[in-house]
């Protein structure tokens, strides 16, 4: 059994169930980022989890730098390899106390070491569901 399968938490299984009937985007033929969609640059809070490049599970809070209907970019202290699957909970806020929350499955397109030691992750959204 893979390290990722072994580290499934109750929350992860719950998110899997929530997203199971969500909208799917076909990225099977997509091998690199191609910015064809308009991006929004808002600091939406998010939690991301998966397995990092060292094969260790992680679960960290982050803030999205920018996003479109097909992808997003954020920074984390963990390096995650290209092609790795990740899960996110994203709070799309519109004001101090209103907005929506989305559960997202994604695939890492790119992981870039930043000057501050964090990693910028470009993530293709493969499935999402508004909660």
Class based on secondary structure composition and strand pairing:
mainly beta
Largest beta sheet: what is the strand line-up? 2-3-4-7-6-5
The CATH superfamily is identified as predicted glycosyltransferase like domains
> What is the ordering of alpha helices and beta strands?
HHEEEEEEE
Categorize the overall geometry.
globular
Radius of gyration: 14 Å
Estimated helix fraction:
10-25%
Low-confidence stretches: 27-33
CATH architectural arrangement: Beta Barrel
Q: State the name of the first-level CATH class.
A: Mainly Beta
SS element count, helices? 2
Multimeric state:
single chain
Taken as a percent bin, the fraction of beta residues is over 45%
Tell me, rounded to a whole number, the average pLDDT: 83
- How far from one another are the termini? 30 Å
Q: Could you give the count of β-strands?
A: 7
Indicate how many domains the architecture comprises.
1
């Amino acid at each position: 059994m893979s390290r990722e399968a072994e580290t499934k938490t109750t929350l992860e299984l719950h998110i899997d169930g929530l997203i199971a009937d969500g909208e799917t985007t076909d990225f099977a033929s997509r091998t690199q980022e191609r910015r064809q969609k308009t991006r929004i640059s808002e600091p939406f809070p998010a939690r991301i989890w998966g397995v990092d490049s060292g094969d260790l599970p992680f679960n960290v809070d982050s803030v999205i730098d920018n996003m479109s209907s097909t992808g997003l970019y954020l920074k984390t202290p963990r390096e995650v390899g290209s092609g790795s699957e990740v899960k996110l909970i994203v709070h799309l806020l519109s004001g101090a106390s209103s907005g929506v929350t989305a559960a997202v499955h994604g695939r890492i397109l790119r992981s870039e070491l930043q000057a501050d030691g964090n990693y910028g992750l470009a993530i293709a959204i493969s499935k999402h569901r508004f909660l």
